[in-house]
Design goal:
Keywords: Acyltransferase, Transferase. By secondary structure, this protein is α+β, with helices and mostly antiparallel strands. The protein is built from eleven helices and 13 strands. Bound molecules: octanoyl-coenzyme A (CO8).
């Protein structure tokens, strides 16, 4: 048995930013347009008028101030409100592979490794640009990695579930070095025309390089323990599956995009996640007061404050539970990895922390790490 360790991380951040102000201005113009176009149906009570969004609501409800996106103009056009992405030649890298290569390159550089030394690539994300061939196999080819590659999807928990899969394979010896990469082009499946959720997501890609601890060339975080859990819920859902064209009523697009009952998610996921982390710590024989850092899923600041308080038994200092959601918004599976990548360099040997993600499924994944 080998000890798996994280030896490198990388974050690709898109060049375009949408501030809350820009987002709300575009949404409100869209709502006015919609209400004018549907004035008769609204007056007859057949459809509901769209209310305006507000920057105050967004910040107070979520803590989000801006988000990065792969393409901005299409999202902000009031009569469109989704990205405009040109089709690509079959031989050109997919968008997910393109941004994955950037993040993987950074993770490899941090670990002092070449792509040819990698023998597993997991593309762990909440949507995949095509069902097959796997995006992970495409990334493997463009990187020049060996071994094998596969895609997996557990929505917001994809990265931590991917880390568990890679850690188990490294531990058993079937794999020596793995990249767990999470290209999240959330702008493609967010309903930007729905004020209840239009502010929630942003685009990004993260990569985590994992190898045998004994192979590490520099600083490393040993993966001491991983734990994944799922519990079925319909409260976060996207119906855009491959049987979609076999159904009637294709004109209704709403259920092809991200949908959620945010209030229920908020209430139900909080106790689930807090109990999950506390149970994992207890079974590993770790004391919460011994934790130096919590790198939580980045969906909502109030949620993270609550989980931090429950786990630590007190209000955590801001550097103990860093948030990045004010800048990146919710980037689905990548959020806790961005927090880890940007806020772990100062930890000293012996310092311990927990990476934890949670979301649709419901799903929760936690990774106990120790800086060596
Ligand atoms: N501006 C102004 N008013 C608004 C707006 C807005 N933008 N949005 C809603 N309102 C109104 C509502 O209509 C409502 O009005 P009323 O009381 O008259 O009905 C009122 O404000 C309150 O609305 P909510 O109850 O919805 O507000 P909340 O306080 O609950 O906040 C949140 C909404 C922020 C969404 C909150 O519920 C939350 O964060 N919930 C948890 C969400 C979460 O963590 N979800 C995880 C999803 S991520 C995941 O699993 C990955 C999925 C795959 C990725 C998909 C990528 C696209």
């Amino acid at each position: 048995m080998f000890t798996p360790a994280i030896t490198g991380t990388g974050v690709f951040t898109p060049e375009h930013v949408i501030t809350n102000e820009e987002l709300v201005e575009a949404f409100n113009a869209h709502a006015d347009l919609f209400n004018a176009e549907n004035a008769e149906a609204i007056a007859a009570g057949e459809i509901e008028a769209k209310g305006h969004s507000s920057t105050e609501f967004i910040f107070n409800a979520s803590g989000i101030e801006q988000r990065y996106v792969y393409e901005k103009d299409g999202i902000l056009e009031p009569d469109r409100m989704y990205p405009r992405l040109a089709p690509r030649d079959a031989e050109a890298p997919s968008i997910m592979a393109e941004i994955a290569l950037d993040a993987c390159g950074k993770a490899l550089a941090q670990a002092g490794r070449e792509a040819s030394e990698v023998d597993l690539v997991i593309c762990a994300a909440s949507n995949h640009e095509r069902p097959y061939p796997a995006i992970a196999v495409e990334i493997q080819r463009h990187l020049g990695a060996g071994g094998f590659a596969f895609d997996m999807n557990v929505a917001c928990s994809s990265a931590t579930f991917g880390i568990q899969a890679a850690a188990d394979m490294i531990r058993s010896g079937s794999v020596r070095r793995a990249l767990v990469v999470s290209p999240e082009v959330t702008s493609g499946h967010l309903e930007w025309r729905d004020r209840d959720c239009h502010f929630i997501f942003g685009d990004v890609c993260t990569a985590v390089l994992m190898e045998r601890a004994e192979d590490a060339k520099g600083a490393r975080f040993d993966v001491v323990s991983t734990r994944c859990a799922t519990e079925y819920s319909n409260n976060i859902r996207n119906e855009n599956g491959f049987l979609r064209r076999t159904r009637d009523a294709m004109e209704d697009r709403r259920d092809m995009q991200f949908m959620q009952n945010g209030r229920k998610v908020f209430k139900e996921v909080l106790p689930l996640v807090s109990a999950h982390i506390l149970g994992h710590l207890e079974d590993a024989g770790w004391e919460a007061e011994g934790l130096k850092r919590l790198w939580l899923h980045q969906a909502n600041k109030t949620m993270n404050d609550f989980i931090g308080r429950k786990v630590m038994g007190r209000v955590p200092e801001s550097d103990e539970q860093p948030n990045i959601l004010q800048d990146y918004a919710n980037t689905s599976s990548a959020g806790s990895i961005i927090a880890f990548s940007k806020h772990s360099g100062d930890l000293e040997p012996g310092d311990r922390g927990v990476i934890c993600s949670f979301g649709a499924g419901y799903s929760v994944g936690s990774v106990l790490v120790e800086r060596v």
